[in-house]
Amino acid sequence: MSPTTISPTHAVDEKLPLPRLIPLAIQHVLVMYAGAVAVPLIVGRALKLSPEDVAFLISADLFACGIATLIQAYGIPGTGIRLPVMMGVTFASLGPMLSMAAAPEVGLLGIFGSVIAAGIFGIIVAPFISRLLPLFPPVVTGTIILIIGVSLMRVGINWAGGGQPTITKVVDGVLGAFPNPAYAQLQGLALAGFVLVVILALLKWADGFVRNVAVLLGIVAGCLLAGFLGLMHFDKVGKAAWFDVVLPFHFGRPTFHLVPIVTMCIVMIVVMIESLGMFLALGEITGKKVEQDDLTRGLRADGVGTLIGGLFNTFPYTSFSQNVGLVGVTGVRSRWVTVVGGVILIVLGLLPKMAALVEAVPQVVLGGAGLVMFGMVAATGARILASVDYKNSNNLFVVAISIGFGMIPLVSPTFFKNLPHDLHPLLESGILLCAIVAVVLNLFFNGLKSSEQAKAEAASAAATAEHA
């Protein structure tokens, strides 16, 4: 009898020792934390909620983030992509929610109702969105992933600058944008540069586990220097409670209004198409083949996470692209890292004092790390595009024009201001614009391939890129 062949465990499913998992998971949490708490902070202030209610929104967001991450990375029957994914509130929903917040008849409870409806909608349409896989050959996926990285670079640059060039605040009852006087201060830029240098030094001279947590060690070094310079403050940590329970419907029973529901469902479609690109990018980075059924489970998890968000007093969820860049930098592909990250987020949601401690990390510190991570996403897209056949020059047009459209919201955020307001959720995402244009141009020039042809082409491109 021949010996039984045991299939080796894929790196995505490898269970690392807990002493390695915890620092790697903390690294993921630190990378996504600023983005995770930004939306509830902005919405809470726009609604003029009390500081206690805003703090509860943030705790609820972290708690729901953790649950959604566990569903996506660990998986439940029929749901979850089971890749190293961290879930967070999508910024695509911010504009529509601020409009809802300004409508007295909608308000916070109306926002929660529209989020619940959008989550149910996402669960229903997930199998139909996942069937779009043949529309994403390497020339399309590579272009989208490149734009994802370029779009994220703006986030990393603003982190390094200390926030946003303009800040959103309510003055005399009106929500407006004002110049941020703290942006791009020399001390902050120097601190971001210090973090970047530490990370690069560790990537060059360290190996093994230390190299894997280079980003975390860079952030820790940056926090130590920030504390020494008096730039890291712990006032909120001292005032925060040690423990608080996050309960559904904390603010009351959600209300449901047709127009906000339709708007949020459109946002959900935007989010799911962006997630499709994230999942394909992660498949390329981790070397895990992503099938249509995997995409369905991943997109369904977006819907389930959004439903949970509405129930637990928070907002729509999506896979955070900044964590995709971290996977590329560390080379650690195990989904168990983000599973532990999900557990940490739940704990942070239940322990406001710990959440406040993480929140105290200055954005400039995260900026130094962001420049490394987000550039890795763009580099992954470039690597995929290197495997594309350009003898047929039409592929050059697909890449060139799609990138041009994807850059519009980044270069000129008001470019589409005179178009109908209802289209803004679709037009303000450079990733979505790039995806739509790349798909349409590829169909126009190259036609539609069968699912089998698309999978074979993607596998061949992945193999070529792996050896590039």
From TrEMBL:
Molecular function via GO: xanthine transmembrane transporter activity
Localization, UniProt: Cell membrane
Cellular component terms per the entry's GO annotation: plasma membrane
First-listed, main subcellular location of the protein, grouped into a coarse class: membrane
Transmembrane intervals: 21-43, 55-76, 108-128, 135-157, 182-203, 215-234, 254-282, 336-358, 364-384, 396-415, 427-445
Membrane topology: Multi-pass membrane protein
Keywords, sorted A to Z: Cell membrane, Membrane, Transmembrane, Transmembrane helix, Transport
NCBIfam families for the chain: ncs2 (TIGR00801), NCS2_1 (NF037981), pbuX (TIGR03173)
Family: Belongs to the nucleobase:cation symporter-2 (NCS2) (TC 2.A.40) family.
Name of the featured protein: Uric acid transporter UacT
Biological classification of the source: Bacteria, Pseudomonadati, Pseudomonadota, Alphaproteobacteria, Hyphomicrobiales
Gene encoding the protein: uacT
